[in-house]
Amino acid sequence: MSCPVCGSTHFHVKDPEDRFSIFSFALTGPNPEFDDDVEPDEAPEVTPQTETYCNACAWHGKLSKI
Question: Which of 10, 18, 47, 63 has its CA 20 to 30 A from that of 29?
Fold first, then answer.
């Protein structure tokens, strides 16, 4: 799974309660692998309908579009 524009496998999602907080992750398989600095119990649930942002370009959309 990679960005449909640039091919990157690194993305982030925004905290639904604090739009200024982001959680970065990689997609090397079907499930996001959050970065080491993200506490597992603090990471938001990521579903196919979650708005997802590419870390390498301006693409963003639903995770299901990747």
Answer: 18
In the chain, % of residues over pLDDT 90? 61
* 7: confidence class by pLDDT, cuts 50, 70, 90: very high
Is residue 63 within 8 Å of residue 54, measured between CB atoms? no
- Tokens standing for residue 6: 């640039």
The answer to whether 10 and 54 have CB atoms below 8 angstroms apart is yes
Give CA separation, 60 vs 24, 40, 55, in Å.
13, 23, 9
Q: What does the alpha-carbon distance between residue 22 and residue 7 come to, in Å, rounded to a whole number?
A: 21
CA gap 63, 3 in Å, rounded: 10
> Residue length, the chain?
66
